[in-house]
Amino acid sequence: MATILVKNIKKMVGLGAPAAPLRGNDLSRVDSIENAYLLLEDKVIAAYGAMEELKQSPGFDEVIDASGRFLMPAWCDSHTHLVFAASREEEFVDKLKGLTYAEIAARGGGILNSARKLQAASEDELFVSAWKRLEELAKWGTGAVEIKSGYGLSPEAELKMLRVIKRLKEKSPLSIKATFLGAHTYPPGYKDDHAGYIHSIIHEMLPVIGAEKLADYIDVFCEHGFFSPEETEMICRAGMQYGLKAKIHANQLNLSGGVEVGVKLGAVSVDHLETMDQQTIELLASSDTIGTMLPTAAFFLRMPFQPARQLIDANCAVALATDFNPGSSPSGNMNLVVAMSCIQMKMLPEEAINAATINGAFAMEVHHETGSIAVGKKANFILTKEINSLAFIPYAFGNNLIHRVMINGQWVSCTNQ
Ligand SMILES: N=CN[C@@H](CCC(=O)O)C(=O)O
Ligand SMILES: [Zn+2]
After folding, report:
1. Which of 14, 58, 120, 378 is the most exposed place for a label (fewest CB within 10 A)?
2. How far apart are the first and last CA of the chain?
3. How is the cofactor bound (predicted)?
């Protein structure tokens, strides 16, 4: 049995295993121990505590001295689209030059641009590029990630995406959840036949996804001009027949009704939430559905940030995620998401860290295995460079404060700082 001891940790944070997502005042509580140790046995947290409680042992396979460093749970990124065939920086430059979203879409840009390129790519090519992105995410401290389909938009290409995600799950040390997002937009052939595309999702795609167990969740882009609340409900209910719980793109551009559908269906999460009013916030707060905020998408699209303070003060369970995708958030860096949430959305550092770790874990139902430091959970953690406080992490935005990352008992990065 391989044992690893991390000793003399200046401060170990994010301790314990809450039974439900953190809300309200609890979200700002980060349990911690100063001058701590962490003992790992065979990829799992075996014990932790204050240094003076450490029982002497004849020997450990590896001993790490973490003097001056903070140890915290690895990030849990519960909303990404990280399987894609190509970046879209040419659209980004067009937008800088003044083109509108509609003009870019008319030139074949947007989600349909990604879909064309993905349809032309092989499963192996998609796997190799997604694998590189995953490796990079792990180096930034992400230990669990949700990945959506939705750039296929045909039975063949949606299944190809989901098979890529299945291979990533099998090979990666990260905890990975797969979400079927066939209802991301309408493909050109179904521009004037929305019912026809929804029929294809329900009768051509879902039966194969169910039979091959290719997804854990079902998602719909519930938005004006995309899928209505009624269509969202119909598609999610069809997915639920195959055991897929709902995770919905809701209220990004408008009060779309996505939150209402999500709450009605008992969705695990409703994600985006740039556009919220008091009534919608109260409805979400009264439910078990997690509100996942994606601040880097709001930043990249120059939209108002999510109303984090109102959501937290109303007692909503909130999580933070990257939305990593080539169109609206070409970054999968959770450190940036946490900094932006504090700087732009006035979340306290402790709130942002909880929302990006344990609540993110709940938003992909991996809370029993990661998201906090607890005995029996996976050895998934970040060891920081030498810092003096937790608040320094979002404060010193843009700086890489990570010294080492361990995911599922493997070191995935190490600097000498
Ligand atoms: N909002 C919908 N979909 C994605 C990205 C869309 C795109 O590729 O442009 C999102 O979550 O932001
Ligand atoms: Zn998204």
Report:
1. 58
2. 30
3. Binds 1 zinc or iron ion per subunit.
Determine, yes or no, domain membership for 141.
yes
The label of the residue with tokens 């919608």 reads 280
Q: Sign of the C-alpha dihedral, residues 95, 132, 172, 72?
A: negative
203, two tokens: 């009768």
Give the position, in ligand 1's atom list, of the atom nearest the Cα of 271.
11
For residues 144 and 228, membership in a common domain is answered with yes
Check whether 239 has a pLDDT greater than 80. yes
To test ligand 1's pocket by mutation, which of 81, 114, 185, 331 has the most ligand atoms within 8 angstroms of CB?
A: 81
Residue 205 is given by DSSP the state I
The CB of 113 under 6 Å from ligand 1? The reply is no
Domain boundary among 340, 362, 384: 362
CB 10 within 8 A of CB 67: yes
Q: Is the C-beta atom of 328 inside 6 A of ligand 1?
A: yes
Closest ligand by atom to 325 CA: 1
DSSP H or E stretch at residue 102: helix 101-106
> Does 342 lie in the same domain as 395?
no
Nearest-atom index, ligand 1, CA of 150: 3
Q: How far is the CA of 316 from the centre of ligand 1 (A)?
A: 24
CATH code of residue 56:
2.30.40.10
Residues 66, 163 share a domain: no
Q: Which two tokens stand for residue 241?
A: 């027949």
- Structural domain contains residue 367: no
pLDDT digits (tens, 9 = 90+) for 321-332: 999 999 999 999
Residues 383, 388, 391: CA angle, nearest 5 degrees: 85
Please report how many Cα atoms fall inside a 13 Å half-sphere around the Cα of residue 7, on the Cβ side. Answer: 14
The H or E element spanning position 70 is strand 69-73
Task: Tell me the per-residue pLDDT of 136-178, one tens digit each, with 9 for 90 and over.
Answer: 999 999 999 999 999 999 999 999 999 999 999 999 999 999 9
Domain with 344 in it = 76-362
Which residues does 251 contact at the CB level (< 8 Å), separation at least 6? 258, 259, 270, 272, 273, 274, 275, 276, 280
Q: Whose CA is nearest to atom 12 of ligand 1?
A: 328
- Measure the CA angle with vertex 353, ends 135 and 417; round to 5°: 55
344 CA from centroid of ligand 1 (Å): 21
User: In terms of Cα–Cα distance, which of 93, 84, 148, 89 is closest to 118?
Assistant: 84
DSSP letter assigned to residue 60: -
ipTM: 0.95
